[in-house]
Amino acid sequence: MIIVVAGNEGAGKTTLAKKLRKAQFQVKELEAVEIRPKSDDELFLILDVPIEVAQQRLKAAGKNLNTPPYTAEDLGRYRDHYLEAAKHLPHCLVIDATNAQADTLAIALNAISDLATQRHRTFLSHS
């Protein structure tokens, strides 16, 4: 299973991806706005935060909020795109990334476990 972590700048993609890799998962961080599954073996985790939260985090990281892709307009457009894409992805969970990092990780791990269990049951039913 490949875990694809996507979401706006400032949502915590890199932090979550590092923690999942440390737990021995195969992880791809999706920087591009284009979200399309490459295989049935992908689970998309889309991290979502309000624009204000993203900008607070980006400002703390030293980013210039007046330049793309960090402007409120850009962040809003990208956020809308990610949330719309999530509706059409076969294996996808939108995670409220305003949670503490540990909570976001726990939600992600539960989603991974649920999908693995679902796939195992499907496999057994076809055997």
Average pLDDT for all residues: 90
CATH homologous superfamily placement: P-loop containing nucleotide triphosphate hydrolases
CATH class: Alpha Beta
Strand order within the widest beta sheet: 2-1-3-4
Count up the domains. Answer: 1
Query: How far do the termini sit from each other?
Result: 20 Å
Q: What is the makeup of the main sheet?
A: 4 strands, parallel
Cα gyration radius (Å):
15 Å
What would you say this structure looks like, in words?
The chain has 127 residues and is an alpha/beta fold. The chain has one domain: Rossmann fold. Helices cover 47% and strands 17% of the residues. It contains four helices and four strands; from the N terminus they run E-H-E-E-H-H-E-H.
Key descriptive features of the protein:
single chain; alpha/beta; Rossmann fold; four-stranded parallel β-sheet; elongated
Task: Describe the structure concisely.
The protein has 127 residues and is of the alpha/beta class.
Strand and helix layout:
Layout: E1 2-7, H1 13-22, E2 26-29, E3 42-48, H2 51-60, H3 72-86, E4 92-96, H4 101-125
Parallel strand pairs: 1-2, 1-3, 3-4
